[in-house]
Amino acid sequence: MDRREFLKVTGAGALTLFLSGxxxxxxxxxxxxxxxxxxxxxxxxxxxxxxxxxxxxxxxADKFIEGAQAAGHEVFRFNAAFEDINxxxxxxxxxxxxxxxxQDAISAKLIQKxxxxxxxxxxxxxxxxxxxxxxxxxxxRFYSRTxxxxxxxxxxxxxx
Length: 160
Fold this sequence. Notes:
By secondary structure, the chain is of the alpha+beta class. The chain has one domain (about 5-160). It is built from five helices and four strands; from the N terminus they run αβαβαβααβ. The protein starts with a helix and ends with a strand.
């Protein structure tokens, strides 16, 4: 994939991510080609960013990952729709820069990847022109690491 095609795909993906979000892809600047760890194993799995495993959000995420990996970036995929996640309680025990009291897949699999990455790309289907509940839950849980992720590059895309 050449640079122009990559920019077209990721630009369309970024717009879609901006408008929705059920899955998260953290793009690292390590530029390691090859394996892309996913939430459940050692490599990225197709689909999974929407309850519709072969839906348009999954296709968008797959294309974004494909472009990022072709450019030499390491990608971590977290499929919120298929993980055990819980909403933020607003207890402020984390102090916006510490561990969350909720121990779930976000705490175990995602938060450290989020802190370590160079870019976060969110993909979600749009339901009634709004984010899905899954991506809202994940974004709210970013609160526990606000200090560490402040000013991190990000992209949000949604699909209809």
